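DATA SHEET
Item: assembly model
Revision: 1
Owner: S.N.
Input lines:
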Amino acid sequence: GAVVSQHPSRVICKSGTSVKIECRSLDFQATTMFWYRQFPKQSLMLMATSNEGSKATYEQGVEKDKFLINHASLTLSTLTVTSAHPEDSSFYICSAPDRGIDSPLHFGNGTRLTVT
Amino acid sequence: SQQGEEDPQALSIQEGENATMNCSYKTSINNLQWYRQNSGRGLVHLILIRSNEREKHSGRLRVTLDTSKKSSSLLITASRAADTASYFCLSGSGGYQKVTFGTGTKLQVIP
């Protein structure tokens, strides 16, 4: 089946540094990818929609300069948390549909970011 | 918005019992999907039911859809400890512009 590979699974960084999270679709082309963050015991909060070859669409309240998204190819989308702060510590997850609109979403295994 | 709301928020049952969780949505849909999330992991797609279907089975899973009530239910029969997870529904209405999830149902299956 379709697989989305997300790396790293865990990362610890110091305040002020930047962290890049990668999501790759391994056996399908993902023209669209979704990025979420999830706080403990809460649901997934959609941060942005990444579109191959164009600018990402950010949800209200999400700083686009803080969370840089790049979707340069049909199989790779990246999320860079810039100038990270402790409040950015969270679980970040990506997903992509493999057959277009309304097809099931395939999720990465998430990235646990801890900012010290 | 394509947000589904799951009910109950938490459910604890003994192994072997059946677990039923519900989902309500607000807009008309093309399909409704159920996902499972194990703690600290990504979501896994379980089953998709189309708007013209009323019931669908997959292994120990049974999903029903009532479009007149804008609701769906997921039944897990003969539950196992490995079914312990959070379960989310997602309603698809022709686009992924607003793909958001509800708070989910946290299922605990006690061995």
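QC remark: The interface with chain B takes residues 4, 6, 32, 34, 42-46, 49, 57, 91, 93, 95, 97, 101-102, 104-110, 112 of chain A (CB under 8 Å).
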